[in-house]
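In keeping with the milestone schedule agreed at the kick-off meeting, the structural modelling team has produced records for the first pair of proteins. Each record is given below as a sequence line and a structure-token line. The laboratory manager (R.T.) confirmed that both were archived under the project's standard naming scheme.
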Amino acid sequence: MRPIEGMSLLVTGGGTGIGAGTARYFVERGAKVTICGRRQDRIDAVAAALGPACLAVRADVASEEDRQRLLEAAVAHGGGLDALVNNAGNMLRGPITALSQAELLDVFNVNVVAAMLLSGLAVPHLAQRRGAIVYFGSVHTRRAYPGASPYAATKGALETVTKVVAAELGPQQIRVNCIVPGAVPTDLNIRAGLFTEEEHDKRMQAIAPYHALQRVGTPREIAEAIDYCVRAEWFTGQSIVIDGGLSLGISPF
């Protein structure tokens, strides 16, 4: 396992939830982390709390111009790049009979296309450090939630992308893996307008018994799995399911 101290990471979607928790985890262990997001106030708050080792860059990963600017900022801040954590994403839910082409293309553009293109830009820098790329799947690829086919489809795509890109970049000693979380408090559904904060909190409480461990996860616990993906030198092309047993299909009734 490589040491964290001195590493340079770029974490997209770093203003809240898993992204913010990942930034904190690595900064506290001596890494330099660049985070991005579309909401300046959120990423600025995270960076202010973590100090000068965390750089906040306002950027939309779906923008080609923003991706280039973001990557350049991360390389300058960290003196290179050891890991790209593709955490940014959008949620889209709805019955298959009511989905529009524009909505589907938008969620695929943010969740899949943007992550792939940013990864491609990062390759020359990651190759210099024998670095790592991390994608995010979801328990939606392990359990079928009616109405969630758009989001589940993007996450299934990323799990497949992980394998192919790992095979492609292996000769350059770049490791590529995917984190598959269970229920973890984030503002993804809130941003998508699906729930209020109060409704989201109640939803987290309601889903807890469906996990074998009887609770939802935390951003820090997901960050620990990211840590392994980033630092383990003979680990690539895999999806790590870290879901407290949610994908086991346990029913509390």
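The second protein of the pair:
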Amino acid sequence: MVTPRSMRILSAGWVLLALYCLQPAAIAQSVSSKPSPKKTAVSPGAFAFDPLDSWKAAVLAGDRSALQSFYTTSPAARSKTPQGETLDPAEEPAFWSSLRPQGLDRLNIQVLEAKTLQPGVLALTLRMEAGLRMGGEEKSVIIGAAQVWVQKLGEWKIVVTQRSDPGAKQARRLPEPARPNTQLYPPPEEAPAEIAEALAAAKKDHKRVLMVFGGNWCYDCHVLDATFHSKEFAPIVNANYHVIHINIGNSDANLDLADKYQVNLKKGVPSLAILDPDGTLVVSQKNGEFESTLKIGPEDVLEFLKKWKPQHGG
């Protein structure tokens, strides 16, 4: 079962696993000097990666042999699943090829975050929706996953993976992004400048600054952003707020800002705080009010935005 908490643990902690497992010297020797594939991030929010598309095709085909070719054998690809960790490079090909016999007829892969850990090493945080059709009926399951790809001799191979068990897709009442913006949260070190710029703009147009603490790995953060940009919510957001996203990294960045603005990150993200143009804290979420977009609906977001908007002319 994929729970919001288990997805967050997977998303926030797996990069540390990847960095621990990768040996810099070995990677340096294996990385090709050839340029990366033509298909790369070309604009904010746009991300594509040919090897991932090919991997997806192998999953849809249930081709175990083809899937095995994507994983390194020297060093052996390391996999972390809810059942434990393994250095068996056949572990992931066996799992993903087993979906086809279970009725897999659809696989939607959303890239939530893409990080270049070092030249020739790409880390992806993924949310996958698989359609399994059995007996004329299709059920949708969600699988959270992370992959570290390494470029070796001009080819990209998977060297570290982490995966959740499939869980039934749960309905949300908030808009979901068709294609998450992998650059929604800028690098953590940019937060102070982002805040200063937003406050300067707020002084000119008398709006308030709405800070959203979270990370690109957080699907609920993407859902909340899609909500803010939806037809129903964009007018009230644009008329009253300058929205900025404060990147908390792997729950280890901008903790000082969270403390300063009284945002309790232990309760989860996204977590919001609102500032007046002079930088005074108006309100902050301390109890994880928006951390699960499965639990809140449009009325909750609308109430928050209306309650804390500036009183123009007051």
